[in-house]
Design a protein that fits this description.
Largest sheet: 4 strands, antiparallel
Protein name: Cytochrome bc1 complex Rieske iron-sulfur subunit
Shape: elongated
Cofactor: [2Fe-2S] cluster
Number of helices: 1
Distance between the termini: 72 Å
Keywords: 2Fe-2S, Disulfide bond, Iron, Iron-sulfur, Metal-binding
Oligomer: single chain
Order of helices and strands: HEEEEEEEEEE
InterPro entries: Rieske_2Fe-2S, Rieske_2Fe-2S_sf, Rieske_Fe-S_prot, Rieske_Fe-S_prot_C, TAT_signal
Helix content: 10-25%
CATH architecture of one domain: 3-layer Sandwich
Structural class: alpha+beta
CATH class of one domain: Mainly Beta
Strand order of the largest sheet: 5-6-7-8
Organism: Kribbella pratensis
């Protein structure tokens, strides 16, 4: 019996890899880690700029201060394809994956393709501490 040629082996290997690659899911959202438990101290009020905000990635929360002394919190996971939002600037919470933008005032969609607002999160301000409740 003759040994298989190098071409036969490489062709078989390439076909096997193509089969495995074909099983991968394309375009589906990536699973996101579980959010932090309630009563987690996120930071200090002085760290949240007026007219801006800060993303707390491990807790999946973005905290904003639309006007002096008013703090809002929202999920930091984009409602389009579950990417984490990347920044807070110029009055919006921004997702770099596909360009969605949300209002720092109420989490509403300012620019799609996001289909829904960011869900609100409950926070408590105690002194200068911001706590996720």
């Amino acid at each position: 019996m003759d040994a298989p040629s190098r071409r036969t082996i490489l062709t078989g290997a390439a076909a096997g890899l193509a089969t495995v690659a074909g099983c991968a899911k394309y375009g589906e959202p990536k699973p996101t880690p579980q959010p932090a438990p309630a009563d987690t101290v996120l930071g200090k009020t002085e760290d949240i700029p007026v007219g801006g905000g800060q993303i707390f990635a491990p807790q999946q929360v973005v905290v904003t201060q639309p006007v002096q002394g008013t703090f809002k919190a929202f999920s930091s996971i984009c409602t389009h394809q579950s990417c984490p939002v990347a920044s807070v600037a110029s009055g919006t919470i921004n997702c770099d994956c596909h360009g969605s933008k949300y209002s720092i005032k109420d989490g509403s969609v300012v620019n799609g393709p996001a289909p829904r607002p960011l869900p609100p999160k409950q926070i408590k301000i105690s002194g200068d501490a911001i706590t996720l409740t």
